[in-house]
Amino acid sequence: MRGITKRFPGVVANDGVDFAAATGEVHALLGENGAGKSTLSNILTGLYRPDEGEILVYCRPVEFSAPRDALDAGICMVHQHFRLVERFTVAENVVLGDHRREGRTFRLRYRTIERRVAELGERYGLAVDPRARVWQLSVGEQQRVEILKALYLDARILILDEPTAVLTPQEAQVLFETLREMAADGRTVIFISHKLHEVKAVADRVTVLRGGHAVATVSAAEATPRSLAVLMVGHGLGEGAPPKARAPGEVVLGLEDVSAAGDRGGAAVRGVSLAVRAGEIVALAGVAGNGQRELAETVAGMRAPTGGVVRVAGKTPRPGDPRAAIRAGVAYVPEDRLGTGLAPSVSIASNLALKSYREAPASSGPLLRLRRIRERAVELIQRYRIAAPGPAAPVRLLSGGNLQKVVLAREFSGQPKVLVAASPTRGLDVGAIESVHSYLHEAAAAGVGVLLISEDLDEILTLADRIAVMYEGEVVGETARADASVEEIGLLMAGGNDPRRD
Amino acid sequence: MNHSLAVVVIASGVAYGTPLLYAALGELLTERSGVLNLGVEGMMLIGAVMGFWTVQRVHAGSGAILVVAIGVAALAGALTAAIHAFLVITLRASQIVSGLALTIFAGAAGLSSYLGNDFNLGDNPARHQFHAVFPASVQRWPIVGPIVFGQNVLVYVSWACVVAVWLYLTRTRPGLNVRAVGDSPAAADAMGIDVAAYRYAHTLVGGAFAGVAGATFTLAITPQWVDGITGGAGWIAIALVIFAFWRPELCLVGAYFFGALQALSPELQARGIHIGPTELWANSLPYLMTIVVLVLVSASSTRRWLGAPAALGLPYVREER
Questions:
Q1: DSSP code of residue B87
Q2: Which pLDDT value is given to residue B282?
Q3: Omega of the bond leading into B223 within 30 degrees of 0 (cis)
Q4: CA–CA separation, B242 vs B119, rounded Å?
Q5: How many alpha carbons lie under 13 Å from residue B47 in its C-beta half-sphere?
Q6: In Å, how far are A11, A160, B46 from A409, measured between CA atoms?
Q7: CATH number of the domain that B226 lies in?
Q8: Which residues of chain B are modeled with pLDDT < 70?
Q9: Which range marks the domain in which residue A40 is found?
Q10: CB A249 within 8 A of CB A279
Q11: What whole-number distance in Å separates Cα of residue A13 and Cα of residue A34?
């Protein structure tokens, strides 16, 4: 690809990108979220058309006006969100859109198709039952179907968009072997990722994208995770500077024997007592699904507790009333950014005003003061360095990291006393994680009591002053960070301390 | 035996159910591509009036003219559906609003009545109509005579259509593609399937089926033109698709069930049997069930369980991120 440029309203997603991958290699495309990786691959698969530049496949210039053209040129993509028809069988999904082999004919001969799918699966270690329905398969198996689809179409160039995001480490190892085998067959594998160690593990060469530019192409064997990180972020990463010692103030969030029901009934939170003081970060560790989300929602007033009391800065806001919680000073960064945290099709400015529009200066009487809201948005976009086309753009156009910045900007600007952050860095790239962490530090330094819910032990150990571990709805252990060890917390998270197990 | 209540009701149930079956098959194809068209009633009435107009105004042999009339009705239905297709596929308007508007525009007291009045169609009975195909001796056979052999050619063609639609959806490449378009347009698009083209084609074919369904009224069941002759059959057809879990073979069963319900009331009256306010329950039952079904289906959880096309009613936009 030569000099590829693609502009979206207000954003240049790719700016003169040159990129070349050779036959028989695994070539990694490394970059932060929003660096232009997805746009580049969407251009390569014919989903978007480049504004400038040309694409050469096997030295021949091609022009893709539709995904079919790219398929015909032998380019296949495994998207991060699978493009599978859930109600179809594996064989039906594989043959979909094929117009060369068994699917060429008007009539479909499923037995032939199923046999071929099984053969391919065996050869590349991608075993799946061709007759199984896709919705019955695990995520790892669904990914295998996506790869089988490409192999079935005899793709010469396979693009995988963050394929390991949905896999366990063991599954990822198996995937890497399959990819190497495919490269050994003379195919080209383009591997998109923002995880440094994976890129090192699987790729032959790495092209690093930053801010829509291709900054370098290096050999994976010679690169170190550190050198790649510098290329990717553009500067050295902070070594998780040890947080300044903070003097915790009075208790701003007090949970007393709080219980709450889950979405499907049954107790999700069982008698949790916890205190968060002003100016400290308390981490709630635990494997997802052990009641952390329900607890966070209870604090935010989105879920009425079935027992116990939630106190915010000494007061007891009406339980199950989000507005009461907000007024008492609770800020909430939900796990589900785009669903619970933001209104996707609404402008950035309006999203930023969602919690403050009732008071001056955002409104006067029953009327909204739109110019004020807009000015405020411009100011926050600058202060939080949100990469956005402008305050009027709908938030759904933003990348993951920028979405989170919008949520954080809104929540911090309400001058909260308590901040509940549920998995605030999930799915974000290194740079965005770093800025989220620094915002949390800032908040604590400003005297906010932060309750951080996370599964990531590294994150917890770099951020938290105190650590509480949740397992099956209960707090099973609580330590100061100084006394915490990864092993102990890991054990608690896995229920290793559960007396019922003995 | 052939005059027993059960045989008579089933035989006329098949006749009354035929327009429902045509309309439901058409709507099924449309919905399988992810387009909900609530304009079935309107498209049926346009088909009914144009089919009737053809037999009244065109002069040719009876057989030829009926074939032409069905063709005209199908074309008229497809053209009406094209309005919906353009609005919801190209302009991405709300499918519910557009479908309702189509029925209001084309339906009773709309374009179809205007055409009926303008052509003066209401004055005369049909000059040609579909008759039973088999000789009277065969029709006298016990039970199967009236039910199976006492029908007109439109009934037999509808059976062929059920088989054809079923084979099309389950055994052919375009059938696979249209199911993908209705369930996951993003996946279909990524595999190089033209989502808009498939949706247009199936919306138009659905309209053609609805047109034929309308002509079944004016050329076979009650061979005349009356304003609003379909009497809400289009709505029943929409509910029928849901009842049938979007499967053509079940559409057949459901169509004849509703057809038999409609046949029951006059037949009971003719025999002097009165069970409560018969008219009330027998005439309103199909509509009541339609409402119940539509309420059920509007809950997203039941939709998945029923097997509704996952992208039904949703416009597809590619560059959306």
A1: I
A2: 63
A3: no
A4: 36
A5: 35
A6: 21, 33, 57
A7: 1.10.3470
A8: 1, 275-283, 286, 297-306, 319-321
A9: 2-233
A10: yes
A11: 8
Torsion of CA A224, A226, A232, A236, to 10 degrees: -150
More confident residue, B278 or A422: A422
Instruction: Quickly list H helices, B39-110.
Output: 40-57, 62-85, 95-106
The answer to whether the CB atoms of A86 and B310 lie below 8 A apart is: yes
A66 touches chain B (CB under 8 A): yes
The count of other CB atoms within 10 Å of the CB of residue A306 is: 15
Q: How many residues does chain A have?
A: 502
Are A264 and A160 found together in one domain?
no
Does A455 or A169 have the greater pLDDT score?
A455
Q: Is A74 on the interface with B (CB under 8 A)?
A: no
Q: Which of A45, A84, A106 sits opposite B187 (nearest CB)?
A: A84
CA distance A195 to A32: 9
For residues B305 and B312, give the distance between their C-alpha atoms in angstroms, rounded to a whole number: 14
d(CA A295, CA A291): 6
- CATH number where A293 lies: 3.40.50.300
Structure-token pair, residue A404: 């989170």
Check if the beta carbon of residue B46 is closer than 8 Å to that of residue B207.
Answer: no
Q: Is the pTM for the entire model greater than 0.80?
A: no
CA of B97 to nearest chain A CA: how many angstroms apart? 21
Other beta carbons less than 10 A from residue A317's beta carbon: 21
Burial of B71 (0-12, 13-18, 19+ CB in 10 A): middle
Chain A residues with CB-CB distance to B32 below 8 A? none
Among the partner-chain residues B172, B177, B320, the one whose CB lies closest to the CB of A107 is B172
Whether residue A383 lies inside any domain: the answer is yes
A266-300 per-position pLDDT tens digit: 788 999 999 999 989 999 988 777 888 889 999 99
A294/A181 same-domain check: no
- B10 falls within a domain: yes
Same domain, A202 and A319: no
Tokens of A316: 């007891």
Report the residue of chain B nearest A87, measured CA to CA: B183
Q: Specify if B95 maps to a domain.
A: yes
On whether the CB atoms of residues B65 and B38 are closer than 8 A, the answer is no
What's the number of CA atoms in the CB half-sphere (13 Å) around residue A94? 35
The Cα–Cα gap between A86 and B184 comes to 8
Q: Quote the minimal CA–CA distance from B169 to chain A in Å.
A: 11
**Look-up: residue for tokens 């930023």?**
A352
State whether residue A83 sits within 8 Å of chain B by CB.
yes
Give whole-number Cα distances, A280 to A465, A480, B117, in Å: 6, 11, 81
**Cβ neighbour number for residue A27 with a 10 Å cutoff:** 23
**A96 to B180: CB separation less than 8 angstroms, yes or no:** yes
Cβ neighbours of B172 in A, within 8 Å: 106-108
A88 contacts on B by Cβ (under 8 Å): 176, 179-180, 183
